[in-house]
Design goal:
Helices cover 36% and strands 33% of the residues. It is α/β, with parallel strands linked by helices. The chain has a six-stranded mixed beta sheet. It has a five-stranded mixed beta sheet with strand order 14-13-12-15-16, sandwiched between helices. A three-stranded antiparallel beta sheet has the order 8-10-9. The structure holds adenosine-5'-triphosphate and magnesium ion. The site of magnesium ion (MG) has 3 residues, from loops.
């Protein structure tokens, strides 16, 4: 059950910040504000905030230019400093679980329990065995605190923190529904991170984060052609007026195949260790999903249909407040921010 108004979704990625405000009506989800701004190259490295001032300033600029008044936000944190486990515990009431959760978590988490924030969700109850399956999420307090502090520095009020992969799942559920009799994979390929979430029978069964993405492709172009990074990036995105050197397509293709190979290793690991059925479809988002040879490479290796999925597909857009040109350009990058924008001020645990 959810109450209150939607929070503003804030996704602080390593290449850019994405901000979305969604208003829910009985019939639709309306995108009423949207902001996007690039970040300087070293502001966020490996999910760590290296230049807090730059990030806080960029956030303030976005609030100003997108004319957002509301200050309550939900923040995304990458899964790198989080641990996500499906565990089975004895059947207990919600109150008992609330009391027991720290102890249960301690058995499964390789960090000191004092350094992590623990969250959980009951996935399934098995009354016949007096057991229940729990999704346990433990995120290091450091990263959460850093991001929350950044938001406060930008005069925002962080209310909710969510792991990127789950924000995407929430949005996908709204958009397509979670299939109850199939196994599908949601893959978000950003600049430095690729997140993978395999959903079996409507429940997240496996998540993984791979430290690779579109930035690595641009770096390869930069290195092999001996040109500045910005030019390599422009060549990759086809965002240049002049001619593009013929080698670029080849470099993009082979680096994309490298990412696809890493994805395939995770899919293989999942298939080898889980009892869930074969993956029937893969959905790809993120800025790097704009590269056609990437989804082709994933399809070739995984041998299942791959669909590039547009995060904005289910939304109506307030065209008086949202710049449709910028939105069209950035739509593939918005899965995390939109998923976060679905969160509400007050949520009651199911
Ligand atoms: N038209 C395009 N063609 C190819 N690549 C693109 C295009 N537009 C954006 N990208 C790439 O998408 C990436 C940015 O995507 P995204 O915004 O999803 O990443 P991020 O959230 O900032 O980073 P991360 O989540 O990895 O920290 C960059 O590597 C960028 O070069
Ligand atoms: Mg991202």
């Amino acid at each position: 059950m959810r109450e209150g108004k939607n929070l503003i979704g804030v996704d602080i990625g390593s290449s850019s910040i994405k901000v979305c405000q969604v208003r829910e009506t009985r019939k639709s989800y309306n995108l009423v504000a949207f902001g996007y701004a690039a970040l300087p190259p070293q502001a966020i490295v490996d999910g760590q905030v290296m230049d807090g001032n730059a990030v806080a300033e960029t956030l303030q600029q976005i609030w100003h230019s997108a004319k957002i008044r509301q200050r309550e936000v939900s923040l995304g944190v990458s899964g790198q400093s989080a641990i996500i486990r499906k565990i089975t515990i004895p059947m207990m009431t919600a109150e008992e679980l609330e009391e027991q959760i720290q102890w249960e978590a301690e058995q499964h988490i390789p960090f000191d329990i004092k350094d992590v924030h623990v969250d959980y969700q009951v996935l399934r109850r098995h009354p016949e065995q007096s057991q229940m399956d729990l999704l346990l999420v433990a995120a290091k307090r450091d990263q959460i605190n850093d991001y929350a502090q950044l938001a406060r520095d930008a005069r925002l009020k962080p209310i909710v923190c969510d792991i990127d992969a789950f924000s995407i799942q929430n949005l996908f559920e709204l958009s397509r529904g979670l299939p109850h009799d199939q196994t599908v994979a949601l893959i978000n390929v950003g600049a430095n991170l690729t997140s993978l979430n395999i959903i079996a029978n409507g429940i997240s069964a496996f998540t993984r984060e791979i430290a690779n993405g579109g930035h690595g492709i641009s770096e390869q172009i930069q290195k092999q052609l001996g040109i500045p990074f910005d030019l390599a990036e422009a060549y990759k995105c086809g965002a240049t007026d002049g001619p593009i050197p013929p080698q670029v397509a080849q470099i993009v293709e082979s680096s994309s195949d490298g990412i696809a190979a890493e994805i395939q290793r995770s899919l293989d690991f999942f298939m080898a260790t889980s009892g869930d059925g074969e993956i029937s479809r893969i959905y790809v988002t993120g800025g790097t999903s704009k590269i056609p040879s990437l989804s082709q490479a994933i399809e070739r290796r995984a041998r299942v249909p791959v669909e590039v999925w547009a995060p904005t597909e289910k939304l109506t857009i307030d065209s008086k407040k949202v710049d449709l040109g910028v939105l069209g350009l950035r739509a593939p990058q918005l899965a995390v921010a939109l998923g976060l924008a679905l969160r509400k001020e007050k949520e009651v645990r199911a």
